[in-house]
Amino acid sequence: MDGERIAGQSAVRSLFASEKGPFSMASPRLFDLGADLYAAYTDNAPWRASCAALAGHLPADARRVLDLGCGPGTTIAALAAVMPETRWVGGDLSGRMLRLAKWRLRGAGVAAQLTRLDALALPLADASVDGVVGHSFLYLVADEHRALREAWRVLRPGGRVACMEPAAGYVSPAGIWRVGRDPRFLFSIPPWRAMSRRHRRYTPASFARALRAAGFGDIRCTPALGGLGIIGSGRRGGGD
Ligand SMILES: C[S@@+](CC[C@H](N)C(=O)[O-])C[C@H]1O[C@@H](n2cnc3c(N)ncnc32)[C@H](O)[C@@H]1O
What domains can you pick out in the chain, each with its CATH number? Predict the structure, then answer.
């Protein structure tokens, strides 16, 4: 009986365990549990537009692009609408997120290779993709430097990485209202802000530093989502 209770307690502990401590969103099992709700709330126009905006930071002729932390497929669906010739690889730690992505992308008629992976050790060959994107993903990983170095490794010379992440600084409720009035958007932003306060937020300087440390050049940092987010992008050198 005691053994059962201890096993139960340790299962609950491991459900939420991560290097950030209990109840951290960095736990893959928590992403599994929250996946359906997350998919429903982020299926809103401002979020989809923010995903699509990453296209402007990729090589125009990108043929194969990896989406890190692809979640329920929102980013690939939005990008595929503006980059119809590109082949997509979506990677995520969460099996449930990947299942939702499979359904969403099938429904949208988008072909994508979906893979369970850890962004800290990518199962992709060196120089095998033209672009790497991440939308609301990098701020959650335990080691952002390792994730960006892995992105650099799998990019071909001349390829680009582009990530949209939470921005540091205050955005007023009126500012959020100006970005979008869809209740799903309005409900999804407070938990996103709370989560990023706990994990990581970026300034143009801190984003540029992280990208430079991973080896990227031609770094650009631009506001996203009305100042709630920031897109950091960089280019893997060579290939000119
Ligand atoms: C906030 S969601 C973003 C999903 C989607 N990109 C979007 O913008 O809606 C973060 C996603 O990153 C995934 N994730 C977190 N850490 C990861 C890691 N180390 N490797 C791969 N995926 C990871 C989570 O499972 C989750 O699906």
Answer: 25-236 (3.40.50.150)
